[in-house]
From TrEMBL:
It comes from Pseudooceanicola lipolyticus. Coiled coil: none annotated. InterPro entries: DctP_fam, TRAP_DctP_sf. One of its GO terms (cellular component) is periplasmic space. It is found in: Periplasm. Gene3D superfamilies: Bacterial extracellular solute-binding protein, family 7. Its main location: periplasm. Transmembrane segments: none annotated. Residues 1-22 form the signal peptide. Keywords: Periplasm, Signal. This is ABC transporter substrate-binding protein. GO terms for biological process: transmembrane transport.
Length: 348
């Protein structure tokens, strides 16, 4: 076991002269691969852990690790190996491994981080046990990031045609395929290298939410920002316990975790990304960036070009013995239920 138990003394009831009461404390290690000021750590994981610690009266505590034990794609395997008790990661960092869980990653499935996070969790809650994608772990939450924009360091993308031939930095193969289908030339680079790449002409722009543009220090390089209403794509993040670590908790401790997980994690994510997007967007405006929005006609063209991604996901789901249409329909229904601006979502 990677967690440990210690004894602490509760406050003595001095008025009655009673001896201090011993309380057994379980401390779980939470694997972390992001800096402490990243919103996932500061605005999602820390408040989540604090709520559980308070709910249990301190009998369950979390140590958020300050050094990564491995790269992001290794996090789920590190969790299974009990290198830590609780972990989180991006489902898309392991292509093909969590494909059913990633239904919200499909184009235009996540119009905002509130709806995307809520729908990802509720859909997993209904169907996830059948997937078998997280065996050896106990998933307590899923969430998504906010809408990405096309952020340009040179030129502007006012219409879809303007994207033709532009070199766009992407974070993964799925986003890269999307950009290629839309006429751009995708290049995969770490976000920390994006600003340098754009200043040297290696990339013309980058797909990122405004929060991430600010976090990675890319704001000074951006001259225009093109919004794609409806949410071009997102990434589904998971939060999970190692199964043995989960089973070692008391019934009361597990109940406290469940009370503050699931939809509670989804709502923390929605707030965190919405809040930091506002800050990031203001920084871009202060830096003189121009904001543009693609037309309804261009949006219809994009939906048509990216429709094969949805068709392929349904075929993969059916091949695994699931009803892909049913899962997709339910996910869309959950998105609609939690959408902050229902005018921006088109039911398909």
């Amino acid at each position: 076991m990677k967690h440990w138990k210690t004894l602490t003394l509760s406050t003595a009831i001095s008025v009655l002269g009673l001896p201090a009461l011993a309380q057994e404390v379980t401390t779980l290690r939470l694997g972390n691969w992001l800096p402490p000021h990243h919103l996932i750590v500061s605005k999602i994981l820390k408040p989540w852990a604090a709520a559980i610690e308070d709910e249990t009266g301190g009998s369950l505590q979390f140590e958020i690790m300050t050094s990564a034990l491995g790269p992001p794609p290794a996090q789920f395997d590190l969790l299974l190996d009990q290198s830590f008790d609780v972990g989180y990661g991006v489902s898309g960092h392991n292509p093909g491994r969590f494909s059913m869980t990633q239904v919200i990653d499909l184009p235009f499935m996540s119009p905002d981080p509130w709806a995307g996070s809520a729908a990802s969790w509720l859909t997993y809650q209904k169907f996830g046990a059948e997937y078998g994608e997280h065996e050896g772990a106990h998933v307590v939450g899923l969430f998504t990031h906010s809408n990405p924009n096309i952020n340009m360091a040179g030129g502007r993308v006012e219409t879809l045609a303007d994207l033709e031939g532009k070199t766009i930095r992407v974070g993964g193969n799925v986003t890269g395929r999307m950009m290629a289908e839309l006429g751009a030339s995708p290049v995969q680079l770490p976000p920390t290298e994006a600003q340098t790449a754009m200043s040297r002409g290696v990339a013309d722009g980058i797909t990122f939410p405004s929060e991430s543009i600010a976090f990675f220090g890319i704001t000074p390089a951006i001259t225009s920002v093109t919004r794609i209403p409806g949410g071009l794509y997102t990434d589904t993040f998971w939060v999970a316990f190692n199964e043995d670590s989960w089973n070692s908790l008391t019934d009361d401790q597990r109940a406290a975790v469940e009370k503050h997980s699931g939809m509670a994690i989804a709502m923390l994510a929605g707030f965190a990304w919405t809040s930091d997007d506002i800050t990031g967007e203001q920084a871009l405006r202060d830096n003189g960036a121009e904001f543009l929005t693609l037309s309804d006609e261009d949006l219809a063209t994009i939906r048509d070009r990216l429709k094969p991604l949805e068709t392929e996901w349904i075929e993969q789901a059916n091949a695994k013995g699931f009803d892909g249409e049913e899962i997709l329909s339910y996910a869309r229904e959950m998105v609609q239920n939690y959408l902050t601006d229902k005018s921006g979502f088109t039911q398909k």
